[in-house]
Each structure stands twice: as structure tokens, then as C-alpha cells.
Amino acid sequence: MKKALLLGTTGVAVALAMLAFGFVAGSPQVAKAGTAQPVQTARPVQTAVADTKIDRTEVEGIIRDYLLKNPEVLLEVQDALEAKQKEEQRLAALGVIKNAKDQIFNSTFDGVVGNPKGKVTIVEFYDYNCGFCKRAIEDMRALTKSDPDLRFVLKEFPILGPDSQKASVVSMAFHLMMPEKYGEFHNALLGGQGRATEAMAIKIALSLGADEATLREKMKDPSIPEAFSKTYDLANKLQITGTPSYVVGNEVVFGALGQEVLAEKIEAVKAAL
To answer: What is the pTM of this model?
Structure first.
């Protein structure tokens, strides 16, 4: 990826150099102060460009030699490009969060652990078969245990195949039936061994007191696929393509970065309240 970016950067450098040479060669001659020479019109400029011969190979050779002697220039350009892209992504996410605040933080389909009335909310997009999510569950447990004012929202985002999708259907059906026990269900399924499947999810739901017939009927609720569709659309707008990903305040945080990083983000939100 970086190689491709560097090659692209080189091409841009060459193109800009060519434009610069063309501009200098074809620029009109402005009258000097104290002289009576008029500024050339568009027609002479065109003639100057036509009469000037630029050796493209020679220019590219100069650019190539410079970049070989100063390769750090490409790294500087790459860093600047990445910084620009991150800032554009941050600003875009800021707009989405502002316009979809209720859908992100207060969707009735999302489970909540920690303090339901906490002043600070962190939203996690997760998949039950995501290995990083399985490890990150300890971050959620530690953060909600250490911070009694933290509201942790769990947003189903099954992207790792049919098993994940079916397990999430059971999860959402259980949440509709028994929201007070959803945290236990979530911990058992995400924190369990092996791949999360529909059968495993149902087994956990029944162990927590769900009626199987009622659960299976609730799994057919049309609001469940509608909720998934809204979450996928929301994730797309936030440029979330993997799990776990978080929304903390007005920021999107990608990846399992650990509880220390998340705690810092949470403290920043608190400071801004």
C-alpha cells in the first residue's frame, strides 16, 4: 500500500513539475517599472508556449535524480496526505454524529451495559465472531466497573458471515424479550469459546430463562433486519469497515486499542461537558 502511495506521489511530483515548467516557459512578460512596454496579450503567450520546447525526459530525469537523493520528500508528502485524509474523515464523521445522534446513542435495538443513565456514552460496533471484539470485551468490563457514570452501548454489526448474522438475530430477539438480562447474554456469547452460531446463541438465551417458542417467534420480527440495515448504513457513513469500532463523544475510534486509550477518550468527553 505504501509502495503504491509512493509511486503515486512520484507521479504527482512529475506532473506538477511539468506544469510548473510549462507555466514558466509560457508566462507573459510583465512590463518593468518605468518602461513603456505593454503587458503581452493572450496571443503572444500562446506563441511563446508553442515556440518553447520542453524535454519531458530531461525533466523527469531531474525529478527522478532529486527524489533518489532526497527520498524523505516522498515520506513527508505521504505523511501530509495521510494527515489530510484523517482530518477529512474526522470532519465527515463529526457531521454524521451530529445528524444521527439518536440513532447512534439511543437506538431502542441496542443493548446497554454499565449505567443506563450515565453522563458519558461509548458505542461499540461489534461482531460476535470477531477475535478482537472477544479480547476487547475485557476493556468494556473494566471500564464499566471502574467508572460508575459510564453508559456502554452495544451495537450489533455482524459482518463476518452467516453465523454472525444468525447469532445477532438471536441476540436482538433476546434483547427485545429480556433487556434486563441482555448484558449477561452478551458476555456469555461474546466471551465464550468457539464460533458464535445461532444454536449457541439460543442455548445461552434459554439458560437465562427465555422461552424457546417465544424466542424463535421473536427472531422473525421484521424490525430486526430493519435495524441491521440502519446500522450498516450508519457504519458506512462513519466509514466503519471493521470491528470493534467505537463512537466516543464526537469521535470515531477504530480497532481494539485497549482500555487505557478508551479511558483517555472518555475523560476527554467528560472534560468537555
So the answer is: 0.71
